[in-house]
Amino acid sequence: MFRCGDILMSLSLFVSLLCLTACQVKRPKGVIADARMENILYDYHLAKAMGEDLVYNETYKRVLYMEAVFKKYGVTQAQFDSSMVWFARHPEILGEIYEQVNNRLKAEREIIENLIALRDNKPRTSKPGDSIDVWAWSRILLLTGMPLDNKYTFVLPSDTNFKDRDTLRWNVGIRFQRALPDSLHAPVMAMQVQYANDSIISDMLRIYRSGMHTLTLHDDTLGAIKEVRGFIYYPTLRADNMLLTDTLSLMRYHATDSLSLKKDTTSSHSATPVDEIRRMPRQLQ
Residue 267: pLDDT band by 50, 70, 90 thresholds? Predict the structure, then answer.
């Protein structure tokens, strides 16, 4: 795997050297536009890093990686090199481009770290704070309702930034592609919080309309949270009525007083005992 951290370090040093200013000069016709050059440089440095990580008997692929980048954007090595010569003479412009590339690589590094943590079943430690989004996965999902593609689940272990009496609020945007579902084919979203003493609180919601839907769980007396689980199940039999979920978030709120936090008054559903979750049909579990 390529090392985003190494790329970021080298780019940061490079950008720090671009502190000189240059006179405004009319851009030659053949110089690649700024936005396009940003995309090329982003892929260029990723390809370069991937090439550096190759084993000895595969180093020939380095050239192929670089050629693939130029082919993707329809430029030649000569066009890229001549454009870089012009940008090097205008470091203020090149510095702005590399700043954007650097920001994108930082975001890429965070995504990769999340994927590695999820692969190892060890989500990254959440950020500290009284109001934090701890969702660690994709924020856009598509369920077709067909077998093997009708359910999404998540498991989030707690970490040192979780506190007693935390409130967890799962927000999911639902978009039905065609007709609204009937009572037999309405999707279900459910969430449960398991505590260190193995107590469980849970809630579920059947969804009959498009829009934002929320589940909120909180308890004042059960102590430390062990993990948070949830799922979305879509049992439709119509392949043309896919379910799009977007803007997913899982907000964690620390208690800020000594009294019980009131449950979200905008939520129309009531808490569901864990026994009721366990009594769901097997395909929902």
Answer: very low
Level-2 CATH architecture, domain 131-284: Sandwich (2.60)
Phi/psi region, residue 121 (left: phi>0; alpha: psi -120 to 50; beta: rest), is: left
Contact at 8 Å (CB) between 32 and 80?
yes
Closest CA relative to residue 250, chosen from 270, 230, 267: 230
- The letter for the amino acid at 239 is A
Find the DSSP H helices in 89-187: 91-119
Domain ranges of the chain: 4-119, 131-284
Give the closest residue to 207 by CA, choosing from 167, 172, 158.
Answer: 172
Secondary element (H or E) of residue 189: strand 188-195
For residue 242, report the phi and psi dihedrals to the nearest 5 degrees: -70, 155
* Phi, psi angle pair for 86, to nearest 5°: -65, -45
The values of phi and psi at residue 210, to 5°, are -75, 155
pTM of the shown model? 0.50
Report the C-alpha gap between 210 and 217 in whole angstroms.
Answer: 22
Q: What is the pLDDT of residues 117-161, one digit of tens each?
A: 655 555 556 677 778 899 888 888 888 767 777 889 999 998 888
